[in-house]
Structure formats: C-alpha cells, structure tokens
Amino acid sequence: MIALKNVSKRYPDGYIALNNIELAVESGEMVFLTGHSGAGKSTLLKLIAAIECPTSGVITISGQNIAQLKPAAIPYLRRKIGFIFQDHKLLFDRNVFENVLLPLQISDFDSNTAMSRVRAALDKVGLLKKEKVMPITLSGGERQRLCIARAVVHRPAILIADEPTGNLDAEYARDIMTMFKSFNQVGVTVLIATHDASLLEDTQHRILSLKQGKLAA
Amino acid sequence: MIRVWLMQHGIVFFYTFKRLASTPVTALLSITVMGIALSLPTGVYVLMENLQSISGQAAGSPQISLFLKQDAQKEDIDKIQQRLQEDSQIVNYRFVSKDSALTQLQQSSGFTDITANLTYNPLPDAFVVHTRENTSDSLEQWKLTLQSWPEIAHVQFDSAWVDRLNALLKLGRSVVLMLATLLSIAIVAIMFNTIRLQILTKRDEIEISKLIGATDSFIQRPFLYFGAIQGLSGGITAWLIITWGIAVLNDELMPLAQLYDLDIQLQHLSLQDSISLLLFSAWLGWLGARISVASHLWQIEPE
Questions:
Q1: Number of A:B CB contacts under 8 A?
Q2: Using only C-alpha atoms, what is the Rg of chain A?
Q3: Where in this chain does the record put each ABC transporter domain (chain A) (predicted)?
Q4: Contact between chains at A106 and B7 (C-beta distance less than 8 A)
Q5: I want to staple A213 with a disulfide (CB 3.0 to 4.6 A). Which of A19, A150, B30, B137 is the partner?
Q6: Shortest CB distance from B213 goes to which of A79, A85, A110?
Q7: What is the dihedral sign for C-alpha B171, B172, B175, B176?
Q8: Are A83 and B205 an interchain contact pair (Cβ–Cβ within 8 Å)?
Q9: Which CATH class is domain B63-156?
Q10: Structure confidence at residue B59 (pLDDT)
Q11: Domains of chain A by range and CATH?
C-alpha cells in the first residue's frame, strides 16, 4: 500500500529530517510511528501525502510513484488519504457540518449523498448533536474528533494521523485510539505518529521508531 | 455527472452572490467605479452613434441629388430612371416629383409663408440617389458622368461636408477606442487587486482545500465567478448611467429642438450593443480575476 525506498529529506538549510528510510505498510495494516519531537515523524507523513517532496528515494502509494505524478494528479492522490493534522487545520468561519462537508465538496459529490455521509461521519465520532456549532466553541477533544470526521468522510483507503492525542487527557486519548482501531477493522490502512508511549503499551500493532531521521527496528 | 457538475457551479454561483452581499459597501463601491469607467467610452460611443444618425447617415453612403431641367418631360424621367436602375454603383434611388417637393416644402413649417406667395411651382423634378462610392475622388468622377446625361440640370452633393463628418467620426472612434482600452486596463487592474485581497483573506481555506485534494480549478472557480459577476454588475451600472445621461440630455435638448423646430432625440444603445457591453464587462472582470488567481494562488502552498 505504502512503500518508501531509500527516502531522504534534507531541508534547504542543510537539516536532514529523514535519512535513507525503508518502509512498507501493507493494505489494511495499522502502524504506529514513534520518536521524539524533531525525529522526523511529521516529515515522513507529509512525504506520503505528497505535501512535501523527498530529496531522494522513491515513494509509492498503491503502486503509484508519487514523485512522478504531475502536479494536476496530486489532488487525486490526496483524496485517497484521510489526513489528521497536528494543528487541526479547521476552518473557523464554518460550522462543524460544513467543515466535514469540505472533502466531499471538492470531489464533486451530489448533495444528498454528501449530507448523509457527513452525518454518518459525525455520528461515528459522536458530534452529530453539534453539527451547527462553530469549531471555536469546541473543546480540544471535540476538535480532534471533528478532524477525524473530516478525514474519514470521503472514505479514504489510507488514514494518517499526526499526534492525534497530542494535548488530550488519557481518557479522551483512549476514545480516539478506539476509533482508529474501528476504522482499521473495516479495512482502512492506518498510520499514526505519536510520542505518547502510554498509547503503545498494550498494542499488538507494528511500531516503528524514528531516531534522528533514521528508522530503528 | 453533468447534473453534479451543474450543481457544483450553481453552488459556487450562489456563494459568490452571498460573498458580494456580505460586504455590500465594498462591493457597491467597486461596482460603481467599474460602472463609471465603462460608461465613459460607452457614452462617447452613444453620442457618436446619435451624431451619425442625426446627420442622416451621410457619412456611410453619400446622398446625391439629381435636379432635372424645369422642362423635363415624362419620357426624360423614365430614361433617367432606367439608367439609374442599370448602374451597379447605385444602392437605391428615389424619385421626387416637383409637386411632391412643393407639398413637402409647404408642410415643413417655417416655409409656409414663402410657399403661399408662389404663383407657380419653381421646383424641378429630382432624384435622390445613394451610391456605393464614398471617397471624394470617385464621387467627383461620378458627378461629371451624371452631369453629362441629358435633361439633368444640376448634380448636387457636398463632398467636403461628407469628408469633414467622416474625419470627425473617425476621430471620435479613435477617442472611444483609446478611452475603452485605457479604462479596460484599469478595470482589469481593479479586479486583480480585489481578488488578490480576497485570496489573502481566504488563505486558510485555500491551503486546507489543497491539503485535502482540491484541484486548482476548484479553488479558482469562486474567484473567477466573483470577477465575472462583479464585471457584469459594472456593465449593468454603466448601462444605467448612460440611460440616465440620455434622459437628462434629452430633457435639455427638447427646448433647443423646439426652438429650431427639429425632431432630435438621443437614442440608447441598440440591443446588440447593450449585450456586447455586458459580455465585455463580464469578460474584463473574469480576466482580472484570472490573472490575479494565476499570479497569487501558487504562492499558497501547504507547508
């Protein structure tokens, strides 16, 4: 599903964020990516979603080499991925419903299907009663769940989350992890970056740890 | 598929109106500026069109009067008529008999007193001819030919007057073209800036849309619609300004026309010209938005 070969990322100022990464994630797998902040977790996720380009190496998503994609094809790649951003990236001038609707609007869904899909996604994350609320009034945990709803509403094959439990207390964090597991159970490939070791204590899923831009097994 | 596509465009259209309505003062101001800018060249154009029609379309196809001799007989008239019919240079001609000429003269007020004192009809039979020729050289040539025909007393046209009016109209057209070009550039510039500001205020939305897989054309669409709709509104404003201007000028012209006993009324843009104005203004708005979008959207790349 996701394969990285000899992938390196060096920023213009000379900082090496990723160094020769080899990684393969199978379809339907759930993988955790750990490491200290600055270890390159976010960079790795952004490379997979073609938000940044690798300096060298090959990244393939379901058989497609994304370095060879034309700029016009990148939006269609991103639609296969649900991305939960570390900084949420919510639109604060739109209500909860409209925020979740956005991925469907951009990919030409007809409005009836879109409405029911948005409600289904909001229901899954438990925000159905708050669909008219503006995001500014939501708590941290609710905002995180709103991000998840927006990431899954178009039913992507891959779900990527960057520090999804960042500032949440343990109980909220567990709720959110349960949600990811349920998405994974219906066949979605899930990739979660986190530095929260407590999340990983009792997991049976694969854990990859990044240290100074390198993968340690 | 087409239904979804239409609906998508419909939604954007609706949102564009909503956005215009959300900042009514700004929107009204820029629409007014565009309307005034467009109304200047269009107004000059309207005045010129009226000038041309008031001057009896003289500039387009020159009118020549053939005056027959006083003693011209019916056969002579028929002969000349036949010759005119055969001449390929003639667009159309009209015979004005001496009797109808006198009646016309009597009817046009101001001459009533003079005609009442006439004991006989001093007017000759005449032909009014429109020709394809409109350069003064060829008209001069033509005059000589006509004058050599039998029973023709006098051939009259004022080629100098035609030339002068032509030159004047040509000048007017250049003025219209210059004004139109300059002000069109100004409108494109206004729209460029308006859209630039909009793109800046919608930075987050654009960035997030790109991140979740919006195509460039999806992101551009609302801005292009905005430009076209605002341009169109500017065109409508210009049309209304000209309507108002014509009404005011017509009011002013009325006493003047009465004094000189003339029937002068300014005409508005023709339907075709009105549609051209609206389409052109919409296109200008679209163009300004298009250039702005092309030069600013790429700067907003997700980090």
A1: 53
A2: 17
A3: 2-217
A4: no
A5: A19
A6: A79
A7: negative
A8: no
A9: alpha beta
A10: 45
A11: 26-40+71-216 (3.40.50.300)
